[in-house]
Amino acid sequence: MLEIIPHGDVTELRFSTWSSRAMRYAVSAFATRGVLIDSGFPDIASDLDAWMAQARPLGGIITHAHEDHGGNVPQLAARGFPLQIAPDTLSYLRAPERIGWYRRLCWGSPRALRNEIRPFAHEALALIPARGHSADHHVVWDAERGTVFGGDLFVGIKVRIAHHNEDLGAQVHALREIAALQPERFFDAHRGPIEAPAAALRAKADWLEETIAAVTKRIHDGWADAAIRTEVLGPEDLTGVLSFGDYSRLNFVRSVRHALTVPAPSANGAGSA
Ligand SMILES: [Zn+2]
Predict the structure, then answer these.
(1) 10 C-alpha vs ligand 1 centroid, how far in Å?
(2) Least confident of 50-64, 139-153, 251-265
(3) Residue 98 DSSP SS3
């Protein structure tokens, strides 16, 4: 299903299916200046096709390789639709990571990109690295209109769950860098337009920093990951349980530990509160 939400010069393309809605997920691609930003997920390919046949965008820009953003790149590329994709995103699209059943049910199974990409660029739209959410995460910056298309940079201020390969320190850095652009508008792929975006990005960076510090202190004090999780972030929510820990609060703690290169205490280790 495609819901079209106009925001003046920006059109939000909000994609969902019955299964994504049942899991309370939808994702938005955006169109601005005749350019498509992100491509939705595999299960909405026909909705995207129908929109493209009517809107005829000049080209597309992809923020990152996750299947709800780059999920339709293989079919767009096969058709010769010009695309701007960062080299690291392209590597992920050519050899997609194995995703768990939770993500396959929500978004569909991504295919590997086989075709060459017809290059694309728009002079008013810059693809800027904003890593952390994933190693290949970017945002699209329209300096003239003070507008950021943020992919998954924001999503919410207090996001207590993480995927196993998120780099939370890099996320803080990216949030502060994009806030420093002083954007007037910010379009989030899951939340749509964000009010007072520079302040929201800084608030998220502050919360992440405080939370990373609270986790770090307990890691140095020898706590076990599950104990830190419950103390600092609370017990797992439904997503953590349904995804078998793929997106979980425990992964938040593990990501901090990984960055510190402090091994987890053994199961019978002392001091694991
Ligand atoms: Zn993502």
Answers:
(1) 21
(2) 251-265
(3) coil
The residue count of the chain comes to 273
pLDDT at 99: 87
pLDDT tens per residue, range 26-76:
999 999 999 999 999 999 999 999 999 999 999 999 999 999 999 999 999
Ligand 1 center–CA 144 separation, angstroms: 26
Concatenated DSSP letters of 107-168: H-PPPPP-SPPPB--BTTBEEEE--SSSTT-EEEEETTTTEEE-TTS-S-S----EETT--H
Residue 189 CA to ligand 1 center (angstroms) comes to: 9
**Ligand 1: centre distance to CA 66 (Å):** 5
CA distances from 231 to 74, 117, 228, 242 (A): 43, 47, 5, 21
In the reported structure, the alpha carbon of residue 269 is separated from the centroid of ligand 1 by a whole-number distance in angstroms of: 36
Percentage of the chain lying above the pLDDT 90 cut: 81
Ligand 1 centroid – CA 220 distance (Å) = 30
Tokens of 123: 């002079």
